[in-house]
Amino acid sequence: MFLADFHNHTRLSPDSEADPLAMARAALDYGVSEMCFTDHMDLLDFKGTPNLFGGWGPYLDQFHSLSVPGLTLRLGLELGEAWENPDLAARIVSQPQLDFVIGSVHNLDSGHGGMDIFYMDLSTEEKCYDILNLYVDCLNLQAAQDTFDVLAHVIYPLRFMNGKAGHHIRLDPWYPRIAEAFRTLIAKDKGIEVNTCRGRTVEDWRPILALYKDCGGVIVTLGSDAHRPQDMSKGIREGAGLLKEFGFDLATYEKRQPKFHKL
Ligand SMILES: [Zn+2]
Ligand SMILES: [Zn+2]
Question: In this structure, what CATH number is given to the domain that contains residue 167?
Fold first, then answer.
């Protein structure tokens, strides 16, 4: 089965120290034949302060220094909170060598404090519900942007609400608003990713994939979101199995254009 990992990080991301060659070799060892580096560029830092973009130099240098026989490498970016500064986002993604852009929502919008949800008070379910109300608004803000190819990890807040904080929150009450974001994406020929969170969240995607399919979505990428070689591509095989079950092909991107692979 063709496997691709289109979401992972290296030491160019502030929260990773990973050597890119070690990440690429780990992907190949896992059985992946195409991977895309998607280091972070969030327009807000974790406290909500605007980030500046230092230019493409280090990303291009790293990318061009790598070659791994048997593995196709792509240049990508995980661009967060693009709605905060659409002009800057457009300048960043105008890089012609870019193959793929993931549009992410890690933070609430600056009008609501702009913090990364990871750092917010998730101690009670009520607090989580308030955050989710605002989060789905941000998903819709992000979906309306033109500076990305697939919407990242739609279930991102559950990583921390159900993981770290130990709640049992489901997203069902927000499906109508999530479906609205999906319809915006689909109308613009954009897709979603199944983010396996290093193999931890594969099954959690089942209802989201069903909703996306109901809305008419066809573009789905897979990403492990690994930040260390030992996590690289975890869950990709299971994710591909899930896509196959739903009748999706696996999407990859080259120069911002999707390609579809039968599973
Ligand atoms: Zn992310
Ligand atoms: Zn990521």
Answer: 3.20.20.140
